[in-house]
Specification:
The protein is mainly β. The protein has one domain. Helices cover about 10% and strands about 45% of the residues. It contains five helices and 14 strands. Strands 8-7-6-5-4-3-2-1-14-13-12-11-10-9 form a 14-stranded antiparallel beta sheet. The chain is globular. It starts with a helix and ends in a 10-residue tail after the last strand.
């Protein structure tokens, strides 16, 4: 299989990056798959790893917004169907199974799993798993890890986000690179956007870090629209993420994400144009969080 065929097949199944919704189209590498990871610095006498009371989530400050409480929490689970045209390619699941202490920081553990269905798996099996630890106090990524299994291709990467020293650590490769202020990984960035006040005609900006580079991201808020998906019918805000840079993240196509026009900003639909057609992910089912500290006013 050529590299181009590899990318197309992976795109059809819409692997881990799909689970990261907004992340999925922000990358053109390995067929819409980019995931990063992180390492953290041990801090004081607090336990390095352990469970945290998910009902005690602190209020976070979000750039360009009023202080808000996260509209997500432990127990949230979103299940998506991945389609290429009219063909079903696989399933993607985003969930927050727990909160954990990570080297002194209480974090949401966000897990993304994407798998090809039986038909696609017969000639190109895909199972990609990504995990992000999102600091529940500072709302920045502390760690990002990915395990990719796409046909014969295997990869495991880890990135540690040290926001105190403004560096990203790549333990496997022994690399340390500069980190943008308050940078997110490509999975945590979706959850960060969900906290923002999204007004039609405006845009919000966040910093992303992946593949040893920082990528400024602009999220344009385009319009309101009502859509029907297998999980139900929803009033949505349509947003378009745009990378303000070239290279790996150059905009060779466009991505549109439909997020519920309510306190939750839950992603329910995503459509993307690629060289071989279009891909969509649609919400099949969902479970609300068990613990959300408060709702938006």
């Amino acid at each position: 299989m050529t590299r181009r065929e590899h990318k197309c097949a992976a795109a059809v199944t819409w692997t881990s990056a799909i689970a990261g919704m907004v992340a999925s189209r922000w990358t053109e590498s390995r067929g819409l798959i980019v995931l990063a990871t992180s390492l953290a610095v041990l801090c004081g006498f607090l336990p390095a790893v352990g469970t945290v009371d998910g009902s005690a989530v602190p209020t976070a400050l979000v750039a360009n917004c009023e202080p808000t409480a996260p509209p997500f929490g432990v127990g949230e689970r979103l299940v998506f169907d991945v389609k290429y045209g009219f063909m079903h390619g696989g399933t993607a699941v985003m969930s927050i199974p727990e909160m954990v202490w990570h080297h002194g920081y209480p974090c949401y553990r966000i897990v993304s799993v994407a798998e090809s269905n039986a038909f696609i798996s017969a000639f190109f099996p895909v199972r990609d798993v990504a995990e992000s630890l999102l600091d529940a106090r500072e709302m920045v990524s502390r760690k990002f890890e990915k395990h990719l299994s796409e046909g014969d291709f295997r990869a495991h990467d880890l990135i540690l986000f040290d926001h105190d020293r403004h560096i990203a650590i790549y333990p496997k490769k022994g690399r340390v690179v500069p980190l943008a202020l308050n940078a997110q990984d490509i999975l945590s960035s979706l959850y960060y956007v969900r906290m923002m006040k999204l007004e039609v005609g405006s845009s919000v900006s966040i910093e992303n870090h992946a593949d040893k580079k920082n990528y400024p991201l602009e999220v344009k808020v385009l319009r309101r629209e009502r859509v029907k998906v297998p999980a139900g019918e929803f009033d949505c805000i349509v947003v378009e993420p745009v990378m303000r840079t070239g290279g790996l993240f150059s905009q060779k196509g466009r991505l549109w994400v439909w997020m519920t026009d309510d306190d939750f900003h839950m992603p329910v639909l995503m459509k993307s144009k690629i060289a071989i057609g279009s891909i969509s992910t649609v919400l099949k089912s969902y479970e609300r969080a068990e613990h959300i500290r408060s709702q938006f006013p």
